């Protein structure tokens, strides 16, 4: 039996569940993951520990025919370790309607492959899908910060090189360029007025002035760390400070950043409260906010990571609460028409 407890004011409500969900995890191939540091693997192993049935399908394994939506995947009956890379890639065709829970953990880029996956999953009726495909289709991780204008810094989305140059000049000569559909700091550039490579970087990022990108005021506080906050629906699950490597402005672990413990400020908690209520309404069960100088920089809703690092820094096991909540939501879901 799983007990899930939720604070409600000063009271505590506990749900006793006999349900052990049959779960399917859609993720990138194991060969592309850092198994011991991957948030998806952490959650899947916790689900196994709590008695779930756990299956996985790499995104290319999803297919649809006249009978319905299926995936070529495998069942996991013991904890997933790097040793899985040495095992035969055996699998079976799985009916996605047979699952209680489908968890989307495929990393961006949000390309036509990702779009097709979400469109296919939107046709499922029985499983609870984490996060809700319709929300992922409507809410881009970068553009969604505009839903909370009072918490963001000066931001421009455009494909115009002239507008980008003017924005950089107006913001004191320095700004940050971000692709709209990537992740982990890929394609992010620090722009400087008068820089020798400014025109070249902008031209490449915008595809010669046809592909929109995001430009934001450079916030100097990033050098001392960007705050990553994990949300479980509308509640704070965990937080960490991502400190860039010396000489870098990128607070990404792929770029050499490190994790430090962090006590959230009043403003950071206020942002979490506002965004969390949105998550609760929109079927976003797991998300992560990136905050710099008290401003919302990104709203990660596809496959937020770094929970393993957050656990290490905070000496915690945040995955336990996350998996318990998903089990509760799956047990009390209502099938879609």
What descriptive keywords fit this protein?
5-stranded antiparallel β-sheet, Rossmann fold, Dna Ligase, domain 1, 25% helix, 7-stranded mixed β-sheet, 30% strand, globular, alpha+beta, 337 residues
Would you write up a description of this structure?
- Strands 3, 4, 5, 6, 7, 8 and 9 form a 7-stranded mixed beta sheet that branches. A 5-stranded antiparallel beta sheet has the order 16-15-14-17-18. A 4-stranded antiparallel beta sheet has the order 10-13-11-12, covered by helices on one side.
- It has 8 helices and 18 strands.
- The relative contact order is 0.15.
- It has helices at 39-49, 112-121, 133-138, 161-170, 198-205, 266-282, 307-314, 318-331; strands spanning 2-8, 11-17, 22-27, 53-58, 62-65, 68-76, 92-95, 101-105, 128-130, 155-158, 174-178, 189-192, 213-217, 226-232, 235-243, 258-260, 286-292, 295-300.
- Among the domains are: 2-132 and 320-331, 3-Layer(aba) Sandwich (Rossmann fold); 154-218, 2-Layer Sandwich (Dna Ligase, domain 1).
- The protein has 337 residues and is an alpha+beta fold.
Give the helix tally. 8
Terminal CA distance reads: 30 Å
Report the uncertain regions. 6-18
The CATH top-level class label of the domain at 2-132 and 320-331: Alpha Beta
Element order, helices and strands?
EEEHEEEEEHEHEHEEHEEEEHEEHH
Strands, helices and their partners?
Blueprint: E1 2-8, E2 11-17, E3 22-27, H1 39-49, E4 53-58, E5 62-65, E6 68-76, E7 92-95, E8 101-105, H2 112-121, E9 128-130, H3 133-138, E10 155-158, H4 161-170, E11 174-178, E12 189-192, H5 198-205, E13 213-217, E14 226-232, E15 235-243, E16 258-260, H6 266-282, E17 286-292, E18 295-300, H7 307-314, H8 318-331
Parallel strand pairs: 3-4, 3-8, 8-9
Antiparallel strand pairs: 1-2, 4-6, 5-6, 6-7, 10-13, 11-12, 11-13, 14-15, 14-17, 15-16, 17-18
């Amino acid at each position: 039996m799983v007990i899930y407890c939720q604070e409600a004011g000063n009271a505590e409500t506990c749900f006793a569940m006999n349900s052990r969900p049959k779960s399917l995890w859609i993720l990138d191939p194991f060969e592309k993951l850092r198994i011991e540091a991957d948030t998806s693997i952490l959650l899947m192993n916790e689900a196994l520990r709590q008695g779930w049935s756990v299956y996985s399908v790499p995104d290319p394994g999803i297919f649809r025919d006249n009978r319905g939506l299926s995936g070529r995947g495998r069942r996991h009956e013991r904890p997933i370790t790097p040793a899985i890379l040495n095992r035969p890639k055996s699998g079976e065709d799985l009916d996605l309607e047979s699952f209680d829970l489908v968890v989307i953990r495929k990393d961006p880029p949000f390309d036509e492959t990702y779009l097709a996956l979400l469109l296919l999953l939107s046709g499922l009726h029985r499983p609870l899908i984490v996060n809700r495909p319709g929300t992922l289709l409507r809410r881009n991780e970068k553009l969604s910060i505009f839903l909370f204008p009072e918490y963001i810094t000066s931001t421009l989305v455009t494909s115009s090189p002239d507008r980008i140059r003017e924005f950089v000049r107006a913001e004191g000569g320095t700004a940050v360029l971000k692709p709209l559909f990537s992740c982990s700091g890929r394609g992010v550039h620090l722009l400087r007025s008068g820089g020798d490579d400014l025109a070249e970087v902008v031209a490449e990022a915008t595809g010669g002035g046809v592909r929109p990108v995001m430009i934001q005021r450079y916030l100097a506080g990033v050098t001392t760390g960007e705050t990553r906050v994990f949300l479980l629906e509308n509640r704070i699950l965990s937080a960490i400070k991502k400190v860039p490597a010396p000489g870098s402005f990128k607070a990404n672990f792929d770029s050499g950043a490190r994790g430090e413990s962090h006590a959230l400020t009043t403003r950071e908690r206020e942002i979490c409260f506002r965004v969390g209520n949105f998550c609760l309404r929109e079927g976003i069960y797991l998300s992560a906010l990136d905050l710099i100088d008290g401003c919302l920089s990104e709203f990660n809703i596809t496959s937020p990571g770094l929970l393993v690092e957050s656990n290490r820094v905070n000496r915690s096991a945040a995955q336990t609460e996350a998996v318990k909540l998903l089990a509760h939501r799956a047990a009390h879901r209502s099938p879609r028409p």
